[in-house]
Structures are given as C-alpha cells and as structure tokens.
Amino acid sequence: MSDTFKAILVSRDEDKKQSVDIVEMSEADLMEGDVTVAVEATTVNYKDGLAITGKAPVVRRWPLVPGIDFAGMVTASSHPDWQKGDRVILNGWGVGEVHHGAYAGKARVRGEWLVPLPAGMAAAEAMAVGTAGYTAMLCVLALERHGIAPSRGPVVVTGAAGGVGTVAVSILSKLGYHVVASTGRPQEAGFLRDLGAAEVIDRAELSGPARPLGKERWAGGVDAVGGNTLANVLSMTSYGGAVAACGLAGGMDLPASVAPFILRGVSLLGIDSVMAPRDIRLEAWRRIATDLDRDKLAALSTTIAFGDIVRAAHDIVDGKVRGRLVVDMRG
Fold it and tell me: pTM (2 decimals)?
C-alpha cells in the first residue's frame, strides 16, 4: 500500500495569483495535531467554492489543502478522547482556511476539534449534512432558544435551494413549521415542496431595497444570503420574531433600518459554525441524527468523486448546485 495520497493544494505566487493543483502528499506533509484521520467523505460547501475559486479570502495560509469539513476514521491518536478506529466528524475550526483541510486522503487535526459520528450514521450521510447542514441546525436551535415555535407562525428560509437552505427546509418542516422557501431558481419549486416547503416564493420579492417596515409575513427566518435579502426578511418579521443569519451569498452589507428592532422587537441572531463551542456542536449533531429525515437527506444530496471537486467548487459559486454535494474519498 502506498504511503502517499492525493490532495488538492491551493497556492499563490509572488503576485498573489492563485493556482489549484492535485498533488501527492504523505503524512509528513500534514500539519500539527494529535489525531490523524483517514478521510472517508467530505463535501463542497459554498465556502469551499470561494476558497478554490479565490473569489473571497477564505484561505489565509499558503499553500493549503482546502475543505472545511470531513468524516472518517481515526488512524492514530495521542489525544485521550480518541482511539484508532473511532469514527469522527470535523466542521470548521479554521480547517481549510489556515490548517490543511479535507481535500486529501488524510488529515491531522487537534482532538478537541472532533465530534463523534452519530451511531447509525454513515460518513457519507454526515457529509450530506456537512457544515452547511450543521449550520442550518445551529440556526434552528437558535430560533428555538428564542421561542420561535411552529405555533408562532411561518418561518422563511432564504437561498432555499442551496446547501444551508435545503437542510433548513427539511428540518423545519419535519419539526412542524410552516416553511416559506425563497429561491432564485423557480424550477426548483417542486423539489423544495418535496423537502417540506409549504410555500415557495421568488427571491425577487426580497432582493430590492428594503422598506423600514414591511407587512408582517413570518415569525422567524433562516438567512444564508445577507444584503438586501436579509434587510427585507427583517422588515417583514412579525412582532417579537427572530431571524438567524449565517451566510453572505448575496453580500456582506446589511442595508437595513433599526425599525424592526425598536418598533417590533425583532431579534437578529448571528450564527457562527466555525468556532462554535463543543457542547453546541454535540447538541446540533444529536438533533441532526433525530430531526433530519434520512430519505429527504438522500434526495437533496449528490455524490461526486475527488476528481470532481474543483469543477463543483466553480459550480457552487455560480449558483448551479442544488442541495448538497458529497465527495466519496475512498475511490
């Protein structure tokens, strides 16, 4: 058996021009850490697309193996919590940004960054969830903590055909919420209804400049878009409602007014998946294991090979990917 494995390496030259290459690596090339994992499955998130295309400064150390999450089996460990043969998941912690990430046959990381793969869940299923789905669950947990129960009224999900959106629609609908799915891809309306959306609206309804206050349309929301979309969602959130914001596919700015906050008591809940504490991660994965319909998860997932990652990264940034992409790393 070869001691080397394939990896995607992102580099920059002296003029800061980025290049992406498939290379052979060995364990000696991995970064510091006390747990080594054979990567069985990973995924292509929007953030991974930005890293590989260079369209946003995700990668901050060069050269670097991108890929912000993986599932696999521990092959070596000096960390007390993990032993050889344990099945684990990693999301975030700067992996794929400043620490070699998932797009390689092996990864060496710190043991405290890992959580156990839920019993009965395959590595590929965990990556069908991935950071996008784990982030969606963090949003749901935040809404629940704020008291946004199904009885409060509809919830809106923006970017609903994307990675975060599809999982959010599926989870929220299973929990009994009336889900309003916003998408710029009207051809996906049937797919979103199959996932559980009660209504599908065109993102154009939310993409123009926001009024200080709009008609109250929903009690809460999950927003992965930002920009005018988030401003509109906030302006249309009902009294005492809350919106969990976790993405910036539509921009980093927030051209909103204070009106929803001071006249309707609306709350904006910021969601960070990268540095979330371990207890929250464990709760999120526990809830994913129970509250995400596995049949729906399969329906919103497409499996690709390692060699398809770079192409998929461009497609996801261009808005051409529906749902979740799972990368089978065992081939």
Answer: 0.93
